[in-house]
Design goal:
- The complex is a heterodimer of chains A (about 110) and B (about 120).
- By secondary structure, chain A is mainly beta.
- Chain A contains no helices and 9 strands.
- In chain A, the strands form 2 sheets. In chain A, strands 1, 3, 4, 7, 8 and 9 form a 6-stranded mixed β-sheet that branches. A 3-stranded antiparallel β-sheet of chain A has the order 2-6-5, with no helix packed on it.
- Chain A is globular and about 40 Å long.
- In chain B, strands 2, 4, 5, 6, 9, 10 and 11 form a 7-stranded mixed β-sheet that branches.
- Classes of the chains: A mainly beta (about 110), B mainly beta (about 120).
Chain lengths: ~110, ~120
């Protein structure tokens, strides 16, 4: 049972906008910054969003992150076939004294 | 080019030990927190441990406390994970990760650990 709750799956057609939610608590998302990671099939995870909404260089601007209270969201606009991957949110948890990940959301491009 | 190369994985019996290594290149290793993250087959990501720049601050997930030990050798640009009393539930790919919670996060390709009799 993950500390951060994500939907197991999300899907859309090419060009559509897809949003993934990540729900936590006051001990993690509510008081700490959120990162998002993308894991393409058979590959290692890669940083997609850091500090809630910042994109590392090289990440397309169709990926965006936001945070409000104890929840965070990742949006993918203009969905492309190469966006098919697993997406994980993550944050430090002050109560557990651990870095915690969401359960992951598999994005499918229809 | 930033590189993190893990090694040392393999098949081990329950109760056995393994030592993972991660060699870093392409950046100033001694300037970063380093982490170990694992992924069981077909499952999600789980943070295992982290260590600060000079090795004076170390933290572990509860499930490995007392069994796993992480350390680093800055002159050798290397990170280590000593895993003892291994259990079947420790099976998975172990990733070496730079700056996991920050904006400079970078992951190695991983090393597979299989605990089975």
């Amino acid at each position: 049972q993950s500390v951060l709750t994500q939907p197991p799956s999300a899907s859309g057609t090419p060009g559509q906008r897809v949003t993934i939610s990540c729900s936590g608590s006051s001990s993690n998302i509510g008081s700490k910054t959120v990162n998002w990671y993308q894991q393409l099939p058979g590959a290692a995870p890669k940083l997609l969003i850091f500090t809630n909404a910042q994109r590392p260089s090289g990440v397309p601007d169709r990926f965006s992150g936001s945070k409000s209270g104890t929840s965070a969201s990742l949006a993918i606009s203009g969905l492309q076939s190469e966006d098919e991957a697993d997406y994980y949110c993550a944050a430090w948890d002050d109560s557990l004294k651990s870095y915690v990940f969401g359960s992951g959301t598999k994005v499918t491009v229809l | 080019e930033v590189q993190l190369v893990e090694s040392g994985g393999g098949l081990v019996q329950p109760g056995g030990s393994l030592r993972l290594s991660c060699v870093a290149s392409g950046f100033t290793f001694r300037s970063y927190w380093m982490n170990w993250v694992r992924q069981a087959p077909g499952k999600g990501l789980e943070w295992v441990a982290n260590i600060n720049q000079d090795g004076t601050q170390i933290a572990y997930v509860d499930s490995v406390k007392g069994r796993f030990t992480t350390s680093r050798d800055n002159p050798q640009n290397s990170l280590y994970l000593q895993m003892n009393s291994l259990r079947a539930e420790d099976t998975g790919v172990y990733y070496c990760v730079r700056d996991l919670s920050g904006g400079a996060s970078y992951w190695g390709q991983g090393s597979l650990v299989t605990v089975s009799s």
